């Protein structure tokens, strides 16, 4: 019997996260990182942004963006360390560090989104 | 009967040359690969930024104003420009990967790659437009 691998499951998180990050991250980073601070577009007021986030669908979408992007990033960074630096012998340690970090980030996202009111 | 002697196959492939840690600097192709892989750091950075924004929204109007002020710091803007370049690189390589990962066939013929990748770009532009629209007030 060969050991069942977790790789397909991790890969599915990686690919869905890759898609959601590709679609959502550039525009959000552009708006909050450049367009609003440089005054190209006026930043939304506190009230209107809060109203937007009060909607459950917005929160769900934001949660998905945070969590899946983190798993995508964790998976890819794990292989960057493997291939780029060739430290395959630290396999377990790196995996725990990467996916553990993504899990912690997911929990933090859930906590923050749950508590916005 | 004597037991048959241990027999091992001859494996010329077992001889592996040690690859340099800097192997990816030797060719532009592999350098691009590593750049693409490093885009993961930009994605993780962005999630951090987003969580910071959401946290500040939860803290109140003043906290949100502080966040916007922080974003105006020149080094923050410089950092965000770099992160944006990496994230865009991720998006473009990701969308262009779709036709290679799952070729679509119509009538036994492979559709040209751009026709498979194009819907990704359409969804990307549409979603981005919706987000801008929501940020501008949404009506």
Can you describe this structure?
The complex is a heterodimer of chains A (117) and B (139). Chain A is mainly alpha-helical. Chain A is 79% helix and 0% strand. Chain A has four helices and no strands. Chain A has helices spanning 7-35, 46-54, 56-85, 91-115. In chain A, helix 3 packs antiparallel against helix 4. The radius of gyration of chain A is 17 Å and the shape is elongated. The model of chain A has no long low-confidence stretch (mean pLDDT 90). Chain B is an all-alpha fold and 139 residues long. Chain B has four helices and two strands. A two-stranded antiparallel ribbon of chain B has the order 1-2. In chain B, strand 1 (105-106) and strand 2 form a beta hairpin. In chain B, helix 1 packs antiparallel against helix 2 (61-71), helix 1 packs across helix 3 (74-101) and helix 3 runs antiparallel to helix 4 (113-135). Chain B is extended and about 85 Å long. The mean pLDDT of chain B is 88. Chains A and B meet through helix 1, helix 2, helix 3 and helix 4 of A and helix 1, helix 2, helix 3 and helix 4 of B.
Task: Give a concise summary.
By secondary structure, chain A is mainly alpha-helical. Chain A contains 4 helices and no strands. In chain A, helix 1 crosses helix 3 and helix 3 (56-85) runs antiparallel to helix 4 (91-115).
Write the layout of secondary structure elements.
The complex is a heterodimer of chains A (117) and B (139).
Chain A: H1 7-35, H2 46-54, H3 56-85, H4 91-115
Chain B: H1 28-59, H2 61-71, H3 74-101, E1 105-106, E2 109-110, H4 113-135
Antiparallel strand pairs in B: 1-2
Helix pairs in contact in B: 1-2, 1-3, 3-4
Task: Summarize the largest interface: chains and residue counts.
Answer: A-B, 54 and 52 residues
Oligomer: heterodimer
Assign an overall shape of chain A: elongated
* Largest sheet report of chain B: 2 strands, antiparallel
Give the integer mean of the pLDDT values of chain A.
90
- Helix content class of chain B: 55-70%
Give the N-terminus to C-terminus distance of chain B in angstroms. Answer: 90 Å
Which structural category do the helix and sheet elements of chain B fall into? mainly alpha
Total number of β-strand segments of chain B?
2
* Number of H/I helices of chain B: 4
DSSP strand content of chain B: under 5%
Our measurement of the CA-to-CA distance between the termini of chain A, rounded to an integer number of angstroms, reads 52 Å
Radius of gyration of chain A: 17 Å
Shape of chain B: extended
N-to-C order of helices and strands of chain A:
HHHH
Order of helices and strands of chain B: HHHEEH
| Major β-sheet annotation of chain A | none
